[in-house]
Amino acid sequence: IEKNQTQGFEYYQQSAEQCFPRAQFNCGYMHHYGRGTPVDYTLALTYYQRAADAGYPLGQYNLGYMYHHGCGIPANFEQMHKYYKMSADQGYPRALYIM
Question: How buried is 17 (Cβ within 10 angstroms: 0-12 exposed, 13-18 middle, 19+ buried)?
Answer without folding.
Answer: exposed
